[in-house]
Amino acid sequence: MSLSLSADQPDVPADADDGVWLECIECGETFAPFDDVRYTCDECDGLLEARYEELPTFEDFEGEAPGVWRYSAALPFDEGVSIQEGNTPLYEVPRLEDDLGVEALRIKHEGMNPTGSFKDRGMTVGVKVAKELGVGRLACASTGNTSAALAAYGSRGGMETLVLLPAGKVAAGKIAQASLHGARILEVDGNFDACLDIVQELAADGEAYLLNSLNPFRLEGQKTIGLEILEGFLADYDAVPDRIVLPVGNAGNTSALYKAFRELVQAGALAEDDVPKLTGVQAEGAAPMVEAIENGADEVRRWEDVETRATAIRIGNPVNAPKALPGIRETGGTAVSVTDEEITDAQRDLAGEGIGVEPASAASVAGLRKLRREGVVGDDERVACLTTGHLLKDPDAAAAAGADPEPVPADTDAVLAHLQDAE
Ligand code: F0G
Fold first, then answer.
1. pLDDT digits (tens, 9 = 90+) for 125-147
2. Would the CA dihedral through 81, 217, 141, 394 be positive or negative?
3. At which of 185, 210, 235 does a domain end?
4. Which of 67, 97, 213, 262 places its Cα 20 to 30 Å from the Cα of 223?
5. What residues does pyridoxal 5'-phosphate bind to (predicted)?
6. Ligand 1 in contact with 338 (CB < 6 A)?
7. Is 320 known as a binding-site position?
8. Is the Cβ atom of 350 under 6 angstroms away from ligand 1?
């Protein structure tokens, strides 16, 4: 199977362009990467992946400016439409590490990207491909962060952008970003999955170039999250993490991290046994991937009704499941669901270490806590939790999880009296 960790490096097909091509993960059909607009396989409609004639090892990433493009040896180009994305912190969290009782815990905070989420890593590559293809309008469906990133990178690239959002279900910070960066915003009377159905149809009709994670080039950029985590752990612990815990919506990151690790294994830079266990976390009200993992199913059942406070992962039809399920299984990982209350508690836990994240991001820490409680994660494990978006993305959720402001008169004595009263 082409998605197994031990798969051999494929032969270079005639339609490769400078050692890069697209391959269907289902039937193996290959395509030239930049000649035509294509998101899925012409033959069987399967998902596509970028393939490379040469796969890099860690040495190939040395000596260049930090960020996504430091990893250009693992990407289809040497540079993209960039706003200096990537190179995000891998925070130590000593109190949380103690509390959760693992050997080591680090937080990879993707909220520290230019638009405040990991989506920037995919867009710097995806928008570059759009320019290469010479397409007109860029479009995406979004629970918010993709739309903010698309708007920013589209405007950086001088391109028109269109975003479809589920009405009333997108956090305020994200809409504000898409709006100021100049996207045309359509609020759809339906959930994210319905928005994506429409954008896919618009893209199929040639109305727009689709930049959701169904687009294989977005995931190439997102591989760099995994590469940065591995390099960070190697520098600090002389070993890669045993496990990476991450929130799951469309399962793009799960797929991208798995691809990054697979390529390192194929390049001989990472032992198969050392690949971190990919561990996905979903909100209880939107957990189709967890259901599939628990049932040992090959396909994910689409959930029509989804609900969670973590609106970024309010998704019932994870389109990258055919790439992500093998990723979770082949690495010995798992998937788990958490309640909205557990998510908010984890948001407070992270805030207590000075790390501000939006609710979906906190799902990773909530999931780790649950898996420690259940004994699935051992106390000897070194773990990285991915936090995907910044606190300010969803100011309403942050304010609701935090303390209320206390009104006082504009008078020092009254302020002192108020402080004493409260003690
Ligand atoms: N965390 C955040 C903050 C997100 O915005 C998303 C996805 C995810 C996690 C899930 O990542 O899809 O790779 O499994 N947000 C998309 C959006 C759907 O439109 O912004 P995934």
1. 999 999 999 999 999 999 999 99
2. negative
3. 210
4. 97
5. 145, 249-253, 388
6. no
7. no
8. no
